[in-house]
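Lab notebook, bench 4. Still working through the backlog of constructs that have no structural model yet. Next entry is a single chain of 147 residues. Request: give me the structure tokens for it.
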Amino acid sequence: MFFLLRMAFWLGIVLILLPTGSPQPAAVNSVGATDAISAASATVGDLRQFCTRQPDACTVGSHVATELGYKAQAGAKMLYNFLTETLGPKDTGSIAGSGIRSGKAVMDRAAMDPGTFNKASQNTLTPADLAPTWRGPAARKDAKHSA
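Model written out:
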């Protein structure tokens, strides 16, 4: 809540300092920049002392700010989950085809006729896959290790 007050304050300062674009005659009772700055600093000082004058209001305000923070966090989590489900990839890449439906179809086919499912997945290695990996030279039996 303090963030909103601070944002409103600085937005007001920016709006006051923006040029209007049209020539206006100077007002007789104009307020100088130093007067405005001293009034703003007095207001900020008064706001800092608010909790010492009204401790119950500050306690309730802190509870409200905490609850609003929890609600904002829960809303952000719901938005994140919604966007993840909506915009996220549908396929994980672990099942051939498009999505869960094709994976379910493969599992249903395997349940109906297990013999055909297992035959399709057997003997799929190539001779290069069956070749042993390089293991380096064999250790000599007469060599002693120096430590």
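Notes after review: The chain has a mean pLDDT of 75. The first helix runs from residue 2 to 17. Flag for follow-up if needed.
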